[in-house]
Hints:
The structure holds two protein chains of two kinds.
Chain A: H1 2-34, H2 36-43, E1 48-52, H3 71-89, E2 91-95, E3 107-111, H4 141-147, E4 151-152, H5 154-160, H6 163-168, H7 203-209, E5 212-219, E6 235-238, E7 241-244, H8 256-267, E8 269-277, H9 285-289, E9 295-298, H10 306-315, E10 328-329, E11 368-370, H11 379-391, H12 409-412, E12 413-415, E13 426-434, E14 441-449, E15 458-464, E16 478-484, E17 493-500, E18 507-513, E19 519-523, E20 527-533, H13 537-549, E21 569-574, H14 595-598, H15 625-631, E22 661-663, E23 669-672, H16 678-686, H17 689-698, E24 702-703, E25 714-718, H18 763-768, H19 772-789, E26 793-795, H20 818-834, E27 838-839, E28 842-844, E29 857-859, H21 862-878, E30 884-887, E31 891-892, E32 895-896, H22 901-911, E33 917-923, H23 931-936, E34 941-944, H24 946-949, H25 960-965, H26 967-984, E35 997-1001, H27 1005-1039
Parallel strand pairs in A: 3-4, 3-5, 5-8, 8-9, 11-29, 25-26, 26-27, 28-30, 30-33, 33-34
Antiparallel strand pairs in A: 1-35, 2-9, 6-7, 10-12, 13-14, 14-17, 15-16, 15-20, 18-19, 20-21, 22-23, 24-25, 31-32
Chain B: E1 5-6, H1 8-27, H2 35-57, H3 59-62, H4 65-82, H5 85-92, H6 99-123, E2 127-128
Antiparallel strand pairs in B: 1-2
Amino acid sequence: MKKEKRSTGLWRGLTALFAGLLALAVGAQSIAQANASFINGQLGITNYKIVETAGGETKDSTYYKSEFSSLKELVEAKVSLAEEIASEGTVLLKNDDSALPIDAAEKVTLWGLNSVHPTLGGRIGSSVYVNKDAGQVQWDLVSALKEKGFSLNEQMISLYDTDDMTKSYGRKDGHSLTPSFGKSYENPTTYNVGEAPAEIYTDDVLASADGTIAIVVLSRDSSEAADYNPEMQNLVKKGKEMVETDTYERPLALTTNEKAMIELAKEHSTKVIVLVNANNPIEIEDLKNDEGISAIVWVGEPGMNGFLGVADVLKGAVNPSGHLPDTFAVSSVSAPAMVNFGVYLYTNNSNNGSGDNMLTENNKGDWYLVESEGIYNGYKYYETRYEDSVIGQANATSSAGAIGDEWIYEDEVTYPFGYGLSYTTFEQKLDSVEVNVGGVCTAKATVTNTGDLAGKSVVQLYVQAPYKAGGLEKAAVQLVAFEKTGVLEPGASEEVTIEFDPAYFASYDENAVKENGTQGAWVLEDGDYYFAIGNGAHEALNNILAKKTGSEDSLVMTADTEEINADNAAVWTLDKTDMETYSVGVENQLQDMDINKLIEGTVEYTTRSDWTKGWTTVETLTPSEAMMVGLTNSLYTLNENTVEGGVTWGKSGPYKLVDALLFDENDKPAGVIDFDDPFWDDLLDQVTLDEAIQFVSKAGDDLENLDSIQLARVYCNDGPLGYTGDQVAGYYVRWSTNDKDQTYYTAEGDEFAAYMMPTNPTEPMVAATFNKELVQREGELMGEDGLYAKESSIYAPGLNLHRAVYCARNHEYYSEDSVLTAYMGDAVCAGLRSKGTMAEPKHFAFNHQETNRPGLSTYMTEQAARENELRGFQMCMANNTAQGIMTAFNRAGASYSGAYRPTVVNIARDEWGYMGWFVTDMINGADYMNWRDIVAGGGGACLTSSAYDTSDIGAMEASKSEIEKDEYFQQQMKQGIKYYLYNIAQSNAMNGISSTTEIVYIRTWVDNAILGAEIGLGILTALCFLLAVINDIKSGKKKA
Amino acid sequence: MAKNKLGFGAYMSIVAGILAVVACVLYRTVMYRYQPVFYMLIGAAALAVIGLLLAKSVPVLANYIPILMVFLLFSAAVWGTMLMVNQIGYVVAGLDGMDTILSYIMFVGFTVAAGIVALIASFLRVGEKA
Lengths: 1040, 130
């Protein structure tokens, strides 16, 4: 009896055990399904294969071909290109007595703890990943200098390069910033610059530096999901305490330890060369003025290979030709953009109580950013105020916003935007400027190498549009276009022709009323337009002022190397204001992004009519009822409606996506069927609603097969440096053995298969090249990566503006200037497109602050939005070199940017003619980024994580019956899919697919293993349960 | 007629039920939550109480209650993990702080503990006939 009872307990227990394991297996299956792409990718498997159908006529289906015969060739070309970009993007700022280049035979001492831990890139999307185990090499400063033949002081390197030193003072792998995806109600407080105090230098070490050349490295790092803040402190965790190991006025100012280290370097070296290893401009005015500092070189964050290019410049193998993509201000907080940067909370934020009008955690809407600087971002502020201070206009010299009692240009700017030196000298002569409103305009310049060394020179063309006091805001100078010469030998000349488009310097007037009665226009006001060339914005403006005023008396030069030459400015006069030519289909769209239009008198914008304005922080804000609509994720509600002709899904039809491809008479690919052709409607009618739902929910990450039109799974990943290692850990990752017949199939065993792909320098350094051809080549090689890595698109480049120097994401964006951004972005997109890899720039739009970026409300004037941020995106979207666009995390005004129809549809599509698709940034369960608003707003599809599937607004499948009633919504879904298909058909995703192929599904071994476990555990559970019950019955009978 | 008694398994089930309630409270603070997990945890706690009631009247049936509890508790643990996979990835990759998954870890800890206690209870008797 007792034995039977014991065995009953045993069978019950085993039932419970197996039932528990069964529960785990069922859950694991769901997790595995939700992350199937990741798991399959890691395991190198897929759940389908493409097969040739019997009897079909087989033809070459490799539509996009590589220019390389092997992956090895591509990998080597990428290293070479990165080196070339870095050498052309290195900016020489100071070079007293020709301190540079260095004779590589001379011994060099590297100074600064960060010389052994330099920052190469950012964190997350633009991280530098390297697979050393696979033999891939990451070139830091030390290894690159040695590779290029420099003789280094090893004693100093040994002092720095210890775990103890790094732990006590240094940064881990060149980084201090910590990305955070969480919410912040306070500004970040700590930043470790990573410099050691002077006490670490022993007499022996100092003696080892005597008589050597000092290369001092000053470094600040970058990161997604992080920002700097002026109030930070240099605290380092030691044990349980935070210890202040260094002090600074601001994290972008020189620190006490850095200053002390520089003094030692000056004391013990024959000359001191400073390398500025940072994408956020550091305050280096003291170094510029310090006679003990011979040279200053900006090297940005040069990526995995870039220090090779920097070394080339230092030794003179390459003559520097880079120019600054950002202004180096004396004080990093002096720009009006810094007035409203940081954490600012709505009064009804979710942390501040509860009630009907309170925001909730789900809204992710607690924070706002008011861009009170208007159009005066970066050099447009410093240079415009400079002109007004010269001509005595509108309180320009007042103390408001000034470092001292009076605003004086030389107290404010260390190195202006566009500035850069060479080891040789060039004479640039502006020959002519021809302006043709509505057509192509040209400027011609002659560049002559007047020095002793061969080198390249950049011709930068700027314009000053006529400003009328108190009228439309206008920058005193703005970049219009630029060209770079080839290598000019000493004495050689080159005539440079620069084409430019007035659309890129027209001003946006929100009050203009056009002939058709609509309000808002791109305006060329009547008056004199001054075009000028110069070594940066400041020299160009000086040339303009000299031409305009006929005098150079009150003009200020930022460096001895600057010149003032009125002949390098030309005037063009427009007799009558033109507000029509560039305004076809244009009208005000972004009025609800201007906080003053929502809540009157909230902010005083920076204005050229009174420079004392624009310096007040908007400390608090209570959203209006209209703003709450966007802040509470309520932009669109599904409703029952019909559209003309109805909406068809899942219609049986003969078409495959590949049928959209056109071929010439030689059977070579010749584009796709026109977007407006009825073919696309027929094709889309074949797509099922379930597939469409899957598309909207998942297309941003890895789109599952669309069987109805025979589209195989396609992949898209970050980022601006190349496919990032944490998402695609090598060329082989996306391939499975099912693909082995494809042309660029990369087997795991290939020597270079596990090489990481983000090999490029960061974007500011790329921008500093001012070389469009080189940047297009960068795009081409990223596109080649797409072919060998089976990736059809890439979330790159980043095209947001460097609005505030304290934004730690600036490394993923090119510049403070929208035109430089536009040209760079267009070039890299064109390169990618030429290889069949879709460029998908990000983050559209207004991502200017990483702290609380999810849901941050961003307010600005429509003029500022259009002339600055949007202009940076316009070129690649209007030219359709970009085939996809990633929207931003932040809100535009109070509405989520990914669902903000004014930018996504009204401007991008209707004004610019953008034909690519839209996808969101990563939705990680945040309900303000929801499929309803995204689709209805024209935002296309979602980039989601597993958390989104079951969040309140994430479950799109569960809303299928409601969607079926809303035909307008379905129509919008179709439109989003159409844009995607139209572009993916023009990508390498079609390689291997032809009219004779079919997708065949197969079960992966992972699927089989989990199913086997479930069946096994199910049987065991049932068996044990049965035995327990039988035992119970038996024991019951015996007892009876 | 002799009165039925509570077995040691009943006390274990109650402990498991209490742990499930604690896990339920903790789950409210987890970053990404899945509503059915609440139901599973509350269901497990309710089963513990039902088991207690049945132990006196139908002890044979009560003895099977911990099996269901184990199933629900392990289900809660794994489904509660599903939405946190990405976040755990962020933390492991050093992209986000440990504090963002601390509640999750505690929730899983309590849920698994509850599951193990219920599993032990399933080997024992919840109710015994006198």
